[in-house]
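Hi there,

I know you've been waiting on this one. I reran it after we fixed the sequence typo, so this is the corrected version. Both the input and the resulting structure follow.
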Amino acid sequence: MPPPTPQDRFLSLLDEHRKILYKIAASYCRSSADREDLAQEMVVQLWRSFASYDDRCRFSTWMYRVALNVAISYQRREVRRSRHTVPAAESILEIAAEETDSTALGDDLRRLRQLVEQLGPLDRALVLLYLDGNRYDAIAEVLGISETNVGTKLGRIKQRLRRDLLRTA
């Protein structure tokens, strides 16, 4: 049996870790269409970068790093673009539908989600990695910061979220 091609290996690894893409896309995009676009952009960039993937590092760590960079760039591009556009009526309906669906979540969870959406790109990535159960060393590797910085930033983010949750209660 011939060895798997790079494309087969990539598809297998991507399938094994695809939930990472969904989590990141959901954290950075509100509408389902935007989430799909972002996920596609992440897959394209992962494939383009796959030749540089080093087997000594976990694929999920490498995938997080590439996907988060794409998501942050995507968000920056969208912010610049949205300054010059007016949302279409269909987009407004999608946002309203999503807000209605989120009422099934507890009020605290919904408020927490809104507060996390207001965080800057790096802080949101940090929270996403933390909530996904990654250790500080893995988060540090993905984001390119020290473990100490991860702990400090997470502590400050937690304090800010607690304070903002109490303020909105």
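Quick highlight: The CA atoms of residues 72 and 120 lie 9 Å apart.

Best,
R. S.
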